[in-house]
Design goal:
The complex is a heterodimer of chains A (575) and B (597).
Chain A: H1 2-10, H2 15-52, H3 59-102, H4 116-155, H5 159-207, H6 209-214, H7 218-270, H8 276-289, H9 296-318, E1 338-345, E2 355-362, E3 367-371, H10 378-385, E4 393-398, E5 401-402, H11 408-413, E6 415-419, H12 429-434, H13 442-451, H14 455-460, H15 478-492, E7 496-500, H16 508-522, E8 526-530, H17 534-537, E9 542-547, E10 550-555, H18 557-560, H19 566-569
Parallel strand pairs in A: 3-8, 3-9, 6-7, 7-8
Antiparallel strand pairs in A: 1-2, 1-4, 4-5, 9-10
Chain B: H1 3-9, H2 11-48, H3 53-108, H4 113-125, H5 128-155, H6 157-166, H7 169-204, H8 206-211, H9 215-266, H10 284-302, H11 304-325, E1 358-368, E2 371-381, E3 386-390, H12 397-404, E4 412-417, E5 420-421, H13 427-432, E6 434-437, H14 448-452, H15 461-470, H16 474-479, H17 497-509, E7 515-519, H18 527-541, E8 545-549, H19 553-557, E9 561-566, E10 569-574, H20 576-581, H21 585-594
Parallel strand pairs in B: 3-8, 3-9, 6-7, 7-8
Antiparallel strand pairs in B: 1-2, 1-4, 4-5, 9-10
Helix pairs in contact in B: 1-11, 2-3, 2-5, 2-10, 3-4, 3-5, 5-6, 5-10, 5-11, 6-9, 7-9, 9-10, 15-17, 17-18
The chains are: A alpha/beta (575), B alpha/beta (597).
Amino acid sequence: MNELLRLWHLFRPYRTWMLGGFVLALVTLLANVTLMAVSGWFITAMAMAGAAGVAMNYFTPAALIRGSAIARTAGRYFERLISHEATLRQLAGLRVWFYRHLEPLAPARLQQYHSADLLSRIRADVDALDHFYTRVLVPMLVAIVAGIGFFVFTALFDLGIALLLLAMLLLAGVGLPLLTRRLGKKPGRRLVEAESELRRLAVDGTQGLSELLVYGAADAHARRLDDASRGLIEQQQAMSRIEGLSLAGVMLCAQLALFGVLWIGVPLVQSDVLPPQQLAMLALFSLAAFEAVAPLPLAFQHIERTLTAARRLFAVVDAKPEVTDPPTPSPVPAHNGLELRGLVFAYPGAERPALDGLDLDLPEGGRVAIVGTTGSGKTTLFNLLLRFWAPVAGDIRLGGEPLSAFRGEDLRRHMTLVSQHTHLFDASIRENLLIAAPDAPQAKLEQACRTAQIHDFIAALPDGYETWAGETGVRLSGGQARRIAIARALLRDAPILLLDEPTEGLDAATERALMDALKVLMAGRTVLMITHRAATLADMDRILVLRQGRIVEQGTHRELLAAEHYPRLLGLDAV
Amino acid sequence: MTARDLLQAQRPLAARWLKLTVGLGLLGGVLIITQAWLLALIIDAVAFADAGLAEVQPWLWPLLIVFALRAAAVWAAEQTGFRAAAEVKATLRERVFRHIQALGPAWLSGQRSGSLAEDLTRGIDGLTEYYARYLPAMTLTVLIPLAILLVVFPLDWLSGLVMLFTAPLIPLFMILIGQGVEAVNQRQWKQLARMGAHFLDVIQGLTTLKLFNASRREAEVIARISDDYRHSTMQVLRLAFLSSAVLEFFATLGIAIVAVFIGFRLYQLQLPLPDLLSPPDISFFAGFFVLLLAPEFYLPLRSLGTHYHGRMEAVSSAERLVTILDTPLPDQPDASGPRAGPAATPGASANDIGVGEVRFDDVHFSYEEGRPALAGVSFRIGAGERVALVGPSGAGKTTVANLLLGFAQPTAGRISVDDRTLSDLNIAAWRGRLAWVPQNPRLFAGTIADNIRLGAPDADMHAVREAARLAFADDFIEALPAAYDTEIGERGAGLSGGQIQRIALARAFLRDARLVILDEATASLDPASETAVQQAVDRLAAGRSMLVIAHRLNTVRDADRILVIDQGRIVEQGDHAQLCAQDGPYRRMVRLLEAAA
């Protein structure tokens, strides 16, 4: 329930819109109920007056009928407009809200969300929150207010009928959803399992298609997928049986209410306690009243979905950033050299530290390489330098100032990273470059791309720099993406350059071309590079061999060729 | 084929269940009329015949039965509707997956596999509403009002006329909704999806944004994009909702007019009507009966909007499926799809493909017009030979392997096996003679043993163990808690790259392969693992022909022949010593790699 309160708080800016939507939804509902009830009363009263030959005021009810027809139409129209307006405003607000909370967490606290699956779930969660208002809040409030109103109104005529109607409304609006929820628990779980089984087979069957074909297992896999598909459909059918139950149940409740009204009402009419036109009115009224509770079974389902989504999102939002910015302004470093002393770092829950007492001096303009197997702590070191994480012990200084004195953004003004994974955004190549320098003119972008040796390629594309890159855009090879990363780094123009295996996975010729581009980038900058490419390492001032978070060997390339670990890490021992 | 064509084309599959669903809906309609009739009888008797409970009981009890039947019909229609969709979904899912298989890895490499899996799962499920609700509702929207009119007209033609005159709006609004609004709706729907994709993209690239201090700026971009979307959507909706408001207006107004006209006549008041239409007299019973039917007359129309959403979802799902199904199958011997078993295609059976010599004679290939991947490649792999393929990325190494694996057919030239053209051989039998170890072998959901016997599902545990032993995988597998029965996590989670490689090699050992195609792993394995993999590869090569797509110098050195490929042509070939003796690309490459050593 705590989540509900927080949600309510989150929706504060949209309360006026929501209130408007609620009022209009209520008006729409009441207009329809009025239309039906007054019509029933009117016809019966007119017939009785006609038969008895007595005068009656027929203008008021006739006007009421016409009025509620118009109110219903207008109410529906504006209710839909307002609720969509509110929903869309809220969606914008929610996304920005979530993004603002997520931003300080990246990347340290988001490591656990790295799989694309989890990220897309976050997106679905935000959407689920957005539907909270239209699918949960409004229907429930309308049902509650209208339900009370209906009870009071019918009680004016007969308490027994009022109680009966209330009981049936409660049964349909609360009892049935609770029942179906209970019934759906187990099938729901099985449904989720069947869904993930099918998804797994679909992913396996597409990503592993080559192997399946070569090993003659494609047909068997297609049969397995078909089985899983039919299995899933069976589970969905089981759920649909339960959902059909609530659909039929609401209707049955409405009809039983009508039956009850007759059962109680007919003797009342006979004993002249209730005029016949009022019985006709109550009969039609009770049928129409159930429009108020019809959306509730769905609303109950959504409550659960929304609360789960909210819990997950709040958990992300509530996470404390790994590194917080100091309140004081960042110092101005005296130079662009780095000093690392006794650096210790362990990832939460890890068995052994990723860095275990690391010392490193990188003078301004110096070039140091780090070599080591995966898991030796190389990338961790970069994360600490960028202040994405904070060390457990030890000290990092930039130009003599402790790193913790810098605000993250100020610190990263001094550093650029080129890594083997370049995220290209779903935007034009130009926009992807502008991330590094939002105000750079086209000429500057082109110059950076020339230096990174990617300009000719981009210029040859039909749309040039406006070519769409990223997920839905043109597919760039690893080398091309890496060059765009280098162009970004050039545009960024930061004095310290961090290179994380910039040529990994590229063949010799591409690597050489990329190295030429990197050399331009490295000129005049302080460089720290992770690599195990011999050709690159020969150019470095000093090389550190990292093993289990410690430096085990260091020296120049030539010196280290005689060492124990270094040649093996480079794959040179077999040559 | 358009998305709508695809949806239409699947209707025969659902036809039987759809008919039943419509039938149940119609039964519901008849029951509604019966219910109204009974209710009118009761109220009439109570109001005008002074009837008590006892007198109306002959109608009360049938009313209860009608209620029960209506509830049952609603529930059953849900089930039959679901079944209608289920038939389509199961059939289409299999068809799309088989089509993906038949399109093969060459096509797949250009797709995002994540989105294909999405299409196969949620995409297909997105069709449910269309068949389960939308299609039956479309038919019932015509049938139920028609049935009600049939009952109302004989009783009171004036009310019938009121309904009939408000009802032509049915086709009118179908067209209105069906055209202008639909196009706009689809566009907004897509824009919404794109906006969601942008949000996801930004979250995924958050680290990159942060590196460039661009992450805070992005919050404003998200706000701006969402706000733009809101403005454009609301502009559209103001109009779109208007059409359904008009529909709602006529529906409620229709009820109101029916009620007022009946009431006035019952009170013997003059109706504001032209003399031409002298209104018929009406009894209270008939009037009340008609009034009860009036909302039911308009109800199917009014609820059409809700079902329309289901249709929109189905169309956008179907669009994705159509792009897959419309991709023509590559022209290859097993174009009938992987369904074709060995007996289905003519050609040599597995036993008589010997694989003595494989030849490429002037082979050309291009993935798309004007961009040749191979431009006249000729070479041979003799029996038992070990041939290495080296060259820059994009030079055509993978294409050579793809052609050899039968994933694609040469656009010109000939690939032959012991002088028989590869495309004439039974592709399944040919693949049966191959062992293939790709760069990043894929492990499938299931146990390690299942993964090893991927190509030979009937192999016993003894054979599996032996294959694992040969691949130097037995030791680490036995060390796992459940040994060979260990369930493999997503993408082999928990296993190292070297271990996955060795499981893939064990797969190769388990089949009677004559030619091994190996794409060396580029990812750095730890030294111990690398040695084990190398030993396993050497063992696998013994007595077999082998084509290695090489990324490492030390594996190339031992090859019988090295093919240097660049821009789709073989520019040099010979063994290591020969190639080092001449001043060609190979020597330059070796120099580069050995620069410092």
